[in-house]
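2024-03-11 09:14:02 DEBUG pipeline.ingest accepted 1 chain
2024-03-11 09:14:02 DEBUG pipeline.ingest length=278
2024-03-11 09:14:03 DEBUG pipeline.predict start
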Amino acid sequence: MTAIILLFRITLLLYFAATVLFLADVITRRDRIGRYARWVLIGGFALHCATLAAKYVEAGHTPVTSLQEALSFFAWAIVGIYLLFDMRYRLSVLGAFICPLALILMFGGSTAPGVTGPVDPILQSWWFPIHVTLAFLGNAVFAIAFMAGIMYLLQERMLKSKKFSALYYRLPSLETLDNINYKSLTFGFPLMTMGIITGAVWANSAWGGYWRWDPKETWALITWFLYAALLHGRLTVGWRGRRAAIFAIIGFLCLLFTFLGVNLLMSELHSFDAMQGR
């Protein structure tokens, strides 16, 4: 077993432990468990950083060229962004939603195929790490908005039905959840925009054109317009609450399709086979 695989498995184990602790915090309503979960997650994130750094040194490029690497990198970005939000909001219940998502991505990465050959020389461009890092960070911020939207709808439903589960007593107010949704949008949209722009610049240096209407590029643009519409609606029309939550959920589902569905089923230039020169 190589050191990288060992680091990855320990990271996966710590994310699993953090998920269990966050869920226990929701069920038992004991703040101490939430604090333990937070420290376990921080430890897992630190090891995840070490894993990605070791992978970068070994491969010589940003580790996102296979489905295994991309899922792991996405999980890393989601956990990192969550920890930043947690510094501001201190909501362990949000960790109970975010950690399972990161854990699923890590489990998927542990079973997905890794790099099986030399990568395309085009990926040696210094635009590549800038583009993918901005894109993944933007996606991670929208994951926060997605989970905040789900939490908003759950709480709103419990309030209307007057049927309160253990989750209700750990959820923040609807106003706080709506604020998280808005903050995520204001941070995620610029990151997504810069990710698309740097991708276009990279495409021009690699293939001589800023836009080739590859399926991945097309769906990325569709997703961008969805989030642009949500931001416009919030700033000019006053969209809040339920409508904003639903838009955030739809936008993230579209984003997931752009990230996974298009890569695996439709894209040519952005497929993992293309990245590995096949």
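2024-03-11 09:14:41 DEBUG pipeline.report Residues 124-278 form one domain.
2024-03-11 09:14:41 DEBUG pipeline.predict end
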